[in-house]
Amino acid sequence: MSRVAVCYLEKDAGRSETAEILTLARRLGAEDVTTYVLAESAGRALPAVGRLVVGTLPSIEALDSEGLYQAVRALLGDERPTWLLLPEGRLLQEVAARLAGAWGYEVVLDATEAVREGAGLQLRRQAFGGKAVVNLFASGALVLGLRAGSLASEPVPPVDGEVRALETPAGILTGRRRTEEHGPGLKEARVIVSGGRGLGSREAFAELERFARAIGGVVGASRAAVDEGWAKPEQQVGLTGAKVAPEVYIAIGISGASQHLAGMSSARTVLAVNTDARAPIVQAADVTFVADWQGLWPLLRQAMGVD
Amino acid sequence: MRIFVFLKTIPDPEAPADAYRFQGREVEAARAAWVLGPFESNALELAVQISEKLGGELTALALGGKEQEVGLRRALAVGAVRAVRIDIETGEGWRSPLATARALARAASTLGGADYYVFGRQAGDWDQGVMAGLFAGLTNLPFVPLVRAVDVRAGELQLVRELPDGWEEGVLAAPAVLSATNGPGTLLRIAKVRDVMQANRKPIEVLSLPEEPAESLRLQAVAPHEARRSGRVVSGTVAEVAEALLTELRRLGLVGGMTT
User: Fold this and answer.
1) Which of A10, B9, B145, B147 is close enough to B179 for a disulfide, judged by CB 3.0 to 4.6 Å?
2) pLDDT score of B259
3) pTM confidence score
């Protein structure tokens, strides 16, 4: 008999990633499904497949990675599901793999497909910076995370659940404080103008802001531009930065390392400006304009009437 | 204070797609150079900074064949005092994440353990991003992922790490497992020529371990992922290219004026 457990944070109850993971839990058709939620207070009905167990803690936001891990362990108790499903976010980054190690489970994150086959799971994910697609078969216990947007989610009605009051776990980081919040950024943007090493300088990168503003876009960056210190890490688009899906994506001075392409391949229209017509970005763009941005920008700026 | 950094040398992820051949369960990348994985280079920089700032001794470890010496020598050139290649007799190219983490945990314990264990956030080949967490779970150590900078204040390790919606800082006591992400604070320093030459003469230890029992996750196939677009290329004088780009921006409704 296969058992499925889903675990998410209450604040993520309305997010599409959570709906996707709940939809998957339902589709796997396991005999026994339990949804676990870490919540700051009890009493609210929450979307769940199968049984709902709510673990309450006064302040989940205040937990560091250690505290969050210990809270999830306390919530799951002796539960050892065949498959534990987690949505994208802090639980995947801070808890998933460690829990798998502690339980002696395999772990697959960022799967784009998970289908039941007999007693096991047939999985698909990308690798080699998006250059390859990998098929895996999990015949045993597994912690699983889905790439956001991999599944058309179905509505999952909220239910009332059993409540367990958890003790606040000790953390590992002392003197902890948040230093920066990411503003509404790349994920919501309709138009993204991203710059890369080909821009050549911090000043040239900074100029991109004017272009982006003129066309109603926000500025993104390749990993190279972040490493150079021209852009902030939260501006990074790519497999390990933001995965974005704007209407228009304009890549300027970005050669198109597959790590980067994996982050922007869902854009509706992709334009590129590059001096090299053989750069990998050309294959990933609808139109590539072969030119040096430094030479192009003054002409565009004049034509567009940008100060 | 002892610091272990786990490195992985991989086929250059920046190599063009046609340098790779994915077929069956095999990956061939004979035309791509072996390089230290991008996030392992961040891990190495972080580990070197920790060892310098806390006055610790840095050991670099890598699991695999002789190709792993590329990353290990890089580590020796930037400050590691010891480099260990973990060698496992195996007929199979792909090893499950859990089996790999078990081998790393066994190697770490054989070498006497460390105060801080530093990993990259994900290997640049299989992109699984689970090794540091699995290792922490197997060794029952605290895990702090996605560290982008470290500093030492009053003898304590201060770090800055990434959250899904921002950044946080705090002080981390040993022992703990960290994973490194990229940023100006983790950009791997360039080794001095003299240090590179010395590193090439230093020995790389080999630690032979038995194969871990087969786990329940199997690789079935790896295939090329086809790019969706095959783009039009516009070239000409700068003025011609600028005009074509403006036309495209107008067509997309991003620039006012005449639509074509």
Assistant:
1) B145
2) 38
3) 0.87
